[in-house]
């Protein structure tokens, strides 16, 4: 009887291993672009994809309000004309992540409407990295009841609020992002989250920590923007803040 039980456990383990291998083998890469790709719309690609698939989006402007309800990898690819742009059309959020385990990497996300976000997150354990989130009418990035996300290597500029995190979102890690020219606040965080090594345009000279408005969170290792001096033809100089898209991050 004991031998029969052991045999059944081995068979069950083998079936599980085969099932996992089959699922991994089924994950595919889908392309989005104006020409020669599987789809011309990001939303259409999302709807047709299976959990675990990768969607590679080529350069271009995509005027869409994308909603992602599956664990997918969405990766922007510079195919010759810069990072692909998700334009929220001035109405809704540019992209909403409503499933756990999504990766969003390498986009310009702009023109979300009033009260909306360039990137709206309502789920957990997502990775948001290497994006330029800019010129959204309200929030650059917003989290709602959203936990254990990693937000890293993004430039978040020229929004009303850079990142907005109300109470109820915890365990998120916000690190190595650049915040600039967000008209009300670079960040508001009423939850319990980790802030580390972000760059802030309003970091005062000599300050060694940056208090995040809205709660008790503190970035204990903040960075200031580099200033860039340009000599003018008339002999004067112009000092500007140097801001660049961060170098893509490999892995997590």
Q: What does this entry look like structurally?
A:
With 252 residues, this protein is mainly beta. The chain has a single domain (32-242), classed as Single-stranded right-handed beta-helix, Pectin lyase-like (Pectate Lyase C-like, 3 Solenoid), CATH 2.160.20.10. It is 13% helix and 38% strand.
Offer a quick outline of the entry.
The chain is mainly beta.
* Fraction of helical residues: 10-25%
Q: What is the CATH class?
A: Mainly Beta
The chain-level mean pLDDT equals 86
Our estimate of the beta-strand percent is 35-45%
Structural class call reads mainly beta
List the helices and strands and how they pair.
Elements: H1 2-26, E1 29-32, H2 42-48, E2 54-57, E3 61-63, E4 66-68, E5 73-76, E6 85-87, E7 95-97, E8 103-105, E9 108-110, E10 117-121, E11 127-129, E12 132-134, E13 139-143, E14 150-152, E15 155-157, E16 161-165, E17 170-175, E18 178-180, E19 185-189, E20 192-196, E21 199-200, E22 210-211, E23 218-219, E24 223-224, E25 226-231, E26 237-242
Parallel strand pairs: 1-2, 2-5, 3-6, 4-7, 5-8, 6-9, 7-10, 8-11, 9-12, 10-13, 11-14, 12-15, 13-16, 14-17, 15-18, 16-19, 17-20, 18-21, 21-24
Antiparallel strand pairs: 22-23, 25-26
Please supply descriptive tags for the structure shown above.
single chain, 252 residues, mainly beta, eight-stranded parallel beta sheet, 26 strands, 13% helix
């Amino acid at each position: 009887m004991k031998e029969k039980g052991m045999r059944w456990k081995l068979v069950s383990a083998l079936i599980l291993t085969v099932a996992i291998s089959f699922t991994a083998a089924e994950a595919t890469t889908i392309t989005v672009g104006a020409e020669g790709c599987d789809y011309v719309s990001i939303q259409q690609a999302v709807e047709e994809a299976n959990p675990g698939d990768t969607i590679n989006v080529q350069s271009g402007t995509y005027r869409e309000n994308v909603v992602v309800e599956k664990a997918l990898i969405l990766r922007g690819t510079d195919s010759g004309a810069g990072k692909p742009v998700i334009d929220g059309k001035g109405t809704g959020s540019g992209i909403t992540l409503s499933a756990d385990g999504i990766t969003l990497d390498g986009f310009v996300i702009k023109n979300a409407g009033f009260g909306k976000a360039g990137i709206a997150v309502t789920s957990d354990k997502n990775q948001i990295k290497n994006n330029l989130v800019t010129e959204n009418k309200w929030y650059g990035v917003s989290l709602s009841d959203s936990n254990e996300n990693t937000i890293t290597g993004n430039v978040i500029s020229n929004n009303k609020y850079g990142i907005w995190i109300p109470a109820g979102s915890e365990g998120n890690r916000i690190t190595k992002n650049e915040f600039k020219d967000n008209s009300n606040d670079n960040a508001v965080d009423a939850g319990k989250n980790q802030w580390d090594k972000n760059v802030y345009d309003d970091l005062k000279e000599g300050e060694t920590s940056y208090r995040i408005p809205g709660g008790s969170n503190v970035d204990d290792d903040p960075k200031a923007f580099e200033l860039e001096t340009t000599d003018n033809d008339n002999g004067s100089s112009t000092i500007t803040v140097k801001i660049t898209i961060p170098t893509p991050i490999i892995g997590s």
